[in-house]
Amino acid sequence: MKLTLDPGAAALLDTLHAAGYAAYAVGGCVRDSLLGRTAHDWDLCTSALPQQVMELFGAEQCIPTGLQHGTVTIKYGGQLYETTTFRTEGSYTDGRHPDEVQFVPDVREDLARRDFTINAMAYNAAEGLVDPFGGQVDLQNGLLRAVGEPQQRFTEDALRILRLYRFAARFGFALDAATARAARQLAPHLDCISAERIQEELAKLLAAPQPGGYLEPAVLAVVLPELTPESLTAAKSVVDACPAGEENLPVRWAALLGALGETDTRRVLKRLRCSNTCIEETAILVRETAGEGVYGSFRLGHEFELRHPTDASCLEQHSHPAGRCPNSNSLFPPQAAVVAVAGHSIARPIALRATGSRTRPGTRQ
Fold first, then answer.
1. Element (H or E) spanning 110, and its range?
2. Cβ neighbours, 10 Å, residue 209
3. How far apart are CA 125 and CA 360, in angstroms?
4. Disulfide engineering: 342 pairs with which of 214, 272, 278, 291, CB 3.0-4.6 Å?
5. What gap in Å lies between CA 321 and CA 284, rounded to an integer?
6. What is the CA radius of gyration of the chain?
């Protein structure tokens, strides 16, 4: 198995190897490379201690990001490369961060502390792929599985529960049965995670191609307790039908939270520390799509008939930034997509998938 390394990462690994240290690219960059995707962040791990890394590359080239956890960020070629010493971790008293770490000489010990098998792989050109937990096979099978004992992984860091569903939604993977069971059972531990981190993971989940099937009720009951199970069930297909991507998050948030109404939607997004822009655009959508029951009026362009005389040019007329529909006088934000508003329209020239039967993510036994 030969992967193409980022030039900067390859150069740094060569320098570490020449100095007598073991070193590898690790984690998401290896996973994405195996999937044929472009890896944006190249993280490295090494047997070199943090002080040895700083001595090797020099103080001007190094940022002591987290020396107590073994991490030094190396500046090279205009890029930043997090370089962490092989380590094991102690107990997690706060359910988020290890109380202590111990540096170790073997990369396999380091990989054993990681969250999921697809993220627990390392690579260098000389040794090839180091994959002690079967991450490559899980990638090929489209399966997301915890490293080792799932209960332990999620007890160590509850945020991994949200990461499980976020990664699965991003790649369209099924969940390993034991891993999914542990995530549901330990979901109440998410109450110790900061609102900012929860919002970050939810936003990435909602930006995925079809996140509806990964909006796990046991998890949403903890991080979005305002949303009833019935409202969540009704929202899933609407969320999936909305355009994906970070730029369309207000549309996805509005589809998910529409049953709450404008005031509670604003309250929820403010609690989650969303940006003012996201809160405003989402709230406008929720307000403008209210009036025909919970989700009756939140319908996409291909699901209703516009009533305006100038319907044919409606999309083009609404391609400019936030303002009012020239036909209906309804407000629309820049990420509005095509939405029916009690017989009127909020529109944006954006391609939408047709609704219909979809294959939901399964659970592998």
1. helix 107-111
2. 12
3. 38
4. 291
5. 14
6. 23
- Residue type for 50, please? P
Task: Please state the pTM of the whole predicted model.
Answer: 0.80
Could you count the other beta carbons within 10 Å of the beta carbon of residue 296?
Answer: 14
Q: Which two tokens stand for residue 197?
A: 């981190």
Give the bridge partners for 26, in sequence order. Answer: 43, 122
CB 44 within 8 A of CB 23: yes
pLDDT in tens, 225-273: 999 999 999 999 999 999 999 999 999 999 999 999 999 999 999 999 9
Pairing of strands 101-103, 87-89: antiparallel
Question: Residue 360: how many CB atoms within 10 A of its CB?
Answer: 12
3-state class (DSSP) for residue 123 = strand
* Helix/strand/coil for 343: coil
| Tokens representing residue 324 in the block | 């009012």
Question: Residue 176 is inside which H or E element, if any?
Answer: strand 174-176
Residue the block writes with tokens 């899933």: 236
Instruction: Tell me which residue has tokens 């303002």.
Output: 323
pLDDT tens digits, 266-292: 999 999 999 999 999 999 999 987 754
Name which of 133, 233, 228, 217 is nearest 180 in CA terms: 217
State the Cα–Cα distance between residues 84 and 292, nearest whole angstrom. 54
Of the CA atoms within 13 Å of residue 136, those in its CB half-sphere come to 14
Compute φ and ψ for 26, nearest 5 degrees.
-145, 150
Residue pLDDT, tens place only, 22-50: 999 999 999 999 999 999 899 999 999 99
